[in-house]
Amino acid sequence: MAHGEVLEFEEYVRTRQDALLRSARRLVPDPVDAQDLLQTALVRTYGRWDGIADKRLADAYLRRVMINTRTEWWRARKLEEVPTEQLPDASVEDSTEQHADRALLMDIMKVLAPKQRSVVVLRHWEQMSTEETAAAIGMSAGTVKSTLHRALARLRQELESRDRDEPATGALEREERERCAA
Fold first, then answer.
1. Full-model pTM
2. Cα-Cα-Cα-Cα dihedral of 122, 140, 145, 120, to 10°?
3. What is the tens place of the pLDDT at every residue in 33-60?
4. Rg of the chain over CA atoms, in angstroms?
5. Which of 47, 82, 118, 144 has the fewest Cβ atoms surrounding its Cβ within 10 A?
6. Rounded to whole angstroms, how far apart are CA atoms 8 and 95?
7. Alpha-carbon gap, residue 33 to 68, rounded angstroms
8. What 3 state SS string does the chain have?
């Protein structure tokens, strides 16, 4: 594609991207999927841009590409539903305890120093290796290990002190968890 046509395509995308994104959002319900759909359609249209004789019809062409792409995605989807004679028993998971545990953890994380918190988050939530964590924070691998060790010890200590401060509540919660697990 000639340099002038590349610039023309870039200008077209810059001026029409909001309207085209609205069209994509009408085609697929998820906003992230709509962005993916538009991006895919733009890539496909870029390869054919010089073949569009009347650029005033570019919107129609691009919308047709979006529709075709959405149809391809729909046909390629993996169906996870399997028809059966008997419906399975419906079960609803109670995530209340999980939310409570997460809220407690987030509250306890406040006792850590910023570097300790960063190491815990990168190692355990982001699941980075020790070397990746060290590179991300700018520490040596040994410093990451010792910081993580101290941070986890501090978190354990804080959890134990909270259990001591609220023995009845902690015991009741543990009993409830054990009862539910059985």
1. 0.43
2. -20
3. 999 999 999 999 988 888 888 888 888 8
4. 27
5. 82
6. 53
7. 15
8. CCHHHHHHHHHHHHHHHHHHHHHHHHHCCCHHHHHHHHHHHHHHHHHHHHHCCCHHHHHHHHHHHHHHHHHHHHHHCCCCCCCCCCCCCCCCCCCHHHHHHHHHHHHHHCCCCHHHHHHHHHHHHCCCCHHHHHHHHCCCHHHHHHHHHHHHHHHHHHHHHHHHHCHHHHHHHHHHHHHHHC
Q: CA–CA separation, 25 vs 31, rounded Å?
A: 6
Residues in the chain: 182
Q: Which tokens is 124 given?
A: 């355990």
**Residue recorded with tokens 């305890």:** 97
Above 90 in pLDDT, residue 153?
Answer: yes
Residue 94, both tokens = 């109670």
Alpha-carbon distance of 51 to 69, in angstroms, equals: 19
